[in-house]
Amino acid sequence: MKMLGNFLRVAVRILVRDRMYTVLNVAGLAIGIAAASMLGLYVWHETHYDGFFSKADRIYRVDKTEFMPGREPVTYSSTPKPLAPLLPQDFPEIETSVRVHDEPVVVARDGSPFREHMQVVDPDFFRLFDLPFIAGDPATALAAPGTVVLTESLARKYFNGVDVLGRSLTLTNGISLTVSGVIRDLPTNTHLRRDAMLTNIRTRLGENVDGWFARMDTVWNSNFLQTYILVKPGTDPVALTARFPAFLSARDPNYLSTGTNKPSKALVLTGLTHIHTDPTGVPANLLGVLHGLEAVAAVVLGIAVVNFVNLSTSRSSLRVREVAVRKALGAPRSMLVGQFMVESVLLTLVAAVLAYVLLEVAMPASVAALGIRFDRAYLYSPWLLLAELLGVVAVGGVAGLYPALVLSRPTASVLLRGGPTAAGGAGVRALLVVAQFSAAILLAIATIVIFQQTRYVSSQQLGFNADGVLLLRELHQPEARAHIESFRQALLRIPGVAQAGAAFHAPSDGSDSTDNYHVPGTLDDGTIVFRSEYIGHDYLQAMGVRLLAGRLFDRAATADALRPPGSTVGEGGVTVRASDPPGRTAVLSWRAAQRLGFHTAEEAVGRQVIYDVDYPLTIIGVVDDVQFNSARVALQPTAFLLDESGLDVMAVRLTPAADAATLAAIDRLWRDSFPTIPVNREFLDDHVRDAYAAELRQGTLLAGFTGLAILIACLGLFGLAAFTAQRRTKEIGLRKVLGAGVPDIMRLLVWQFSKPVMVANLIAWPLAWLGLSHWLQGYAYRIALNPLVFALAGLAALLIAWVTVAGHAARVAAAKPVDALRYE
Amino acid sequence: MLKLVDLTKVYRTEEVETTALNQVNIHIKQGEFVAIMGPSGCGKSSLLNIVGMLDNPSSGQYWFGDEDVAGYGERKLADIRKKNIGFIFQSFNLIDELTVFENVELALLYHDIPSRERKERVKEALAKVSIAHRSSHLPQQLSGGQQQRVAIARAVVSRPRMLLADEPTGNLDSANGEEVMNMLTDLNGEGTTIVMVTHSMPHAQYARRIINLFDGQVVAENLRAA
């Protein structure tokens, strides 16, 4: 302890004397720690979803993998309604099951409609998800239909308080629900909807829902709700999953076992805490991204640690005498090593405190800019503080070990001018600078490529013109359903509206409805699978889809007339089933036409195609391929089918002259037409871009942290340059005496720091190439890696390095040689 | 106190092999004051390094008391060193960042001495070299003579049995030099063995015995008349 005090005094005084060194060292480390902590907190947040539920380790979501001939299996979280109640009956190890269905409702408050999410759930919901209640009893709150559980925020929104048990919440369709409970707002790290209300699964929510929802009780091929189970302690999920096929064949009348060339399905389990990051059966999950971010955090911290090592060892010559005297007085080297380690841990501690401040200051801005979310409470949790403290000791230890070994190297004999002087580890420093810049250049290249790829996929030829298209949603609401055409006509009368047409879904909505098709007379082996897009008459026109041959759907064409279920079509007199498309015509995408064996678009027009088993459709037109999904998946061959029964979204093409007044007029028209439905509009291009939000966010995150990595590396380079300039002053003075000019000296110093950056390029390029090629494999549509990007990133690093060291070089080079020679 | 037997030190670099000490035999008794003289490069510093246990000989024996320490490792040497040997350097080698008091105290920090006693002993040592009034100053605020007195205080505060002085007056003017020599003589009078390397014949005269080194060998030993 006595030693510590003495040592700290020396340390503090040296740190104060060499202010620049201290500032560079602490600043670099603080930025590194802050950046790594922020990423760490984010990753922690994302990987700790739903763990706060006390039975989290016994809760599973039952997911469903679909096997379709000719397609990769796809796993969905949606399951049929009859599944859940049968599970506890057939499996004794399943304690209970809970269904969660999200139903949009419109709540009235002061005469205005508000769109809310109603979670329609089984009464045992709170037995699985033990959310804390402010008012009400979790055991009975959802026991009866007609009641609703609100979050604290929703209670305040509708009743200005939380003491609202027994109050009535009224929907715009006249249905009234009694508040039976108020729960605390959900934490950010849950996959459950945080802004939703909860009600019993038998609650009546309106005619448009109730009838359909009740019918679903026995329907096994309609998947639309989530099924959760609570298993008994010690249940093996793998063993349980293995018994699901037998269960399905006993219970699901449509079930066909896997392995046949027919559509089939399997039930799989996703543990509650894995739902957010790595649900079962989803190959490209968040976990991979999070591991990537962890690596970035490690790299940024590593660069800061390397700075610390370099700046510390470069100063070793300043401490030679101190070390030698201590040794002469009997200090063993181990003690000196320990002391230097303590010094670095302390410096790290200072940096960590600064990082904490930095984090506090920068967090709101970064949360907004990067779109990453985490609970601020973590910042104050004792566990996190303990972890941070351990982290400080670890980082300080790692950063301090090598400098401590170098610094403690001088022997006492230097005092008697008999022995060698300190070497100072210059070779290791150069190596570390190379490593730093390799990492920084690698990150820079990755950032550029990720941005390029994201821009490429989001501007990928969509097959439609996404600019200037407004999407208006929720036309499927019962209040609107019957008035879609008159609403469309009214839209067309607004100045600035060029065209309007409705469809079931908009592109990038994530809809995935596929069917089998084949040409009459060919073998239907179930391998030709097209995406079926159900649309209204004017939709393709409004979307600006390019027609290659034939025509689009036309109100005037009798062939396009819709048939109700039960009527007969075609020469054979096939009866239209409820599941058949009501139209008799189809527009195909070019890819679909090719898949059916047509060589040109014209060849397909007028020919027949069989939908599903026996329902004939006439091909009236062929359009350009349309990207209705994200570019992660390849373009799907698509069949456009006419159907007006489920139109929900209106695509409104605006003229270039459209302005804010146009939008205001559209909103006004909506409110006048459908006063009980809140306006829900967005621009198509924004909507398409949202599909790439994750990639954009990753790109932004990476760009931010790449910037930080380069900044930290430059702080280190700046310090090293200052040190070198100082140490080589005498040599430079001599060179000048011998006739070297300022440019010669500049060149000398700048060259010294260019070499490691150039070597770093040679290391970073192949690594970046390999890594990014692998990353791009995940996209069906991807850019080719451009060597120019690599060269540019390398050149930028070199330029930044030059700018960083040029100041010192210029100052030293411009000094009078006599000053240099006097210096000693 | 110490006995060097056939002590040899050879420095090897990639190209040359230099014999700094060649078969040196020296015997120094407890309480002696020995001066070592010789021209530059004669091996004085190498000898002091080895006697001070900062370096090992290439061959030969170094008896310190009844132990041959010639082959000891750094850990063992450091332990013997801190208990028995104090150093005084030509360039003082005070630590710039520590005050006078802290510099002297440093020598006791590596010993297991309670804080109160440590403070007492530092005060005592500073008083002995008449620098107590400067105890909170930093080294650069002192004159050369004052700095060397602090260095002496640091060397003696741990009460070593032997003091090694490497040209202790080399950076001092004659008045300050005299003062330092008088202090060393006093310390020797109190029983401390002193081995001093010097270029100065007048200062060497303070010693009881003068050993002359040349080309790594002892060429003459002169006992001063008592």
TrEMBL record, chain A:
One of its GO terms (molecular function) is transmembrane transporter activity. It is found in: Cell membrane. Residues 22-244, 443-665 form the MacB-like periplasmic core domain. The keyword DNA-binding does not apply. Pfam families: FtsX, MacB_PCD. It is a multi-pass membrane protein. The chain crosses the membrane at residues 21-44, 286-309, 336-359, 379-407, 428-451, 701-725, 756-776, 788-807. Residues 296-409, 705-812 form the ABC3 transporter permease C-terminal domain. GO terms for cellular component: plasma membrane. The keyword Zinc does not apply. This is Putative ABC transport system permease protein. The lineage of its organism: Bacteria, Pseudomonadati, Pseudomonadota, Alphaproteobacteria, Rhodospirillales.
TrEMBL record, chain B:
This is Putative ABC transport system ATP-binding protein. One of its GO terms (molecular function) is transmembrane transporter activity. It comes from Nitrospirillum amazonense. Belongs to the ABC transporter superfamily. Macrolide exporter (TC 3.A.1.122) family. The lineage of its organism: Bacteria, Pseudomonadati, Pseudomonadota, Alphaproteobacteria, Rhodospirillales. Keywords: ATP-binding, Cell inner membrane, Cell membrane, Membrane, Nucleotide-binding, Transport. InterPro entries: AAA+_ATPase, ABC_transporter-like_ATP-bd, ABC_transporter-like_CS, ABC_transpr_LolD-like, MacB-like_ATP-bd, P-loop_NTPase. Gene3D superfamilies: P-loop containing nucleotide triphosphate hydrolases (3.40.50.300). SMART domains: AAA (SM00382). Pfam families: ABC_tran. Residues 2-226 form the ABC transporter domain. GO terms for cellular component: membrane protein complex; plasma membrane.
